[in-house]
Amino acid sequence: MANTATRLFNLIAYLQRHPNSSASQLAEALDVSSRTVQRYIVMLEDMGIPVYAERGAQGGYSLVRGYRMPPLMLSPEEAVAVHLGTGLIEYVWGKLFRGAALSAMTKIENVLPEEQLQEIAWARGNLITQGIPRINPNLDMEQLETLYQSVRQGFQVRILYQGKQQSAPQWRTIEPYVLVYSWGQQYCVAYCRLRQAMRSFRVDRIQAMKRLTETFDKPPEFDPAQYLDEHFEDKSSYEVRLFFSAETASVAQDYRCCWESYEERPDGSVVAGFRTSDLDTATRRVMCFLPDARVLAPAELKQRIAVTSRAIAEQYEPDTAMAR
Hints:
By secondary structure, the chain is of the alpha+beta class. The protein has helices spanning 4-17, 23-30, 34-46, 76-93, 98-111, 114-126, 141-153, 224-231, 249-254, 279-287, 299-315, 320-323; strands at 51-53, 61-63, 155-161, 170-182, 185-192, 197-202, 206-215, 238-244, 261-264, 270-276, 293-297. The chain has twelve helices and eleven strands.
């Protein structure tokens, strides 16, 4: 829950963006009562923040014209959030924003009050992030930078691309719309002039690249979130379902982060699942939960698990010759 200092900061910022706001509007924005808003207004006045009220049906609270909140007026929690956010940049985008993130954090720390600096120092030692898939180390950062600049400036790009199911690479001209980070991989969602359709390209599969001088206009109706949900390259085509008995349900519970669906049954058993487009990867993932789990679906995965299990068993059969 936000503390009083945070709400005061938010109140100033809201009045800067929405002058002449009524007490009820401010209460709704801050998620407090109108009486609390009145108390906050008095506190701001005591702090020397120039707030005035216009009376009448159309009246409301405003800041004196020309007043601006001092830059980087962050609460301790906000300072920690900024620090944690910049710390994740290198995990997901590599060197693309590393320098900017470090520079921004340095500037922020140079002007923050001591209280906020203490909060950041505490966060460094006590809020540790692990387990996020790092950016693919095979990724060519120069290519990622070229794509980033092309997305920003609207330039077409010529790429030599070899998809997962392609026997040989192929030259394509694309209009890059957005860059996507997904489970350690970078993708470029683009309009492919060869296919005359939208496609997603895994950046580490691009073997060569050249930015062209021709530009393009991204359609205003293009919705990245909708596209990723409906047409992303790794859009799942298989629904994997695993059964955990009541005796092994705790295993599924311990790894809730692995499941997109999770059903607890009255008898204590659990059916957990996820979607995938790659049965090879799914096989490796599911094998980690055997024999505590039993694969319910899909049938293709059950067959792969059976073949893989027999191959493992053969590798570890006792060596009869040595036993003699």
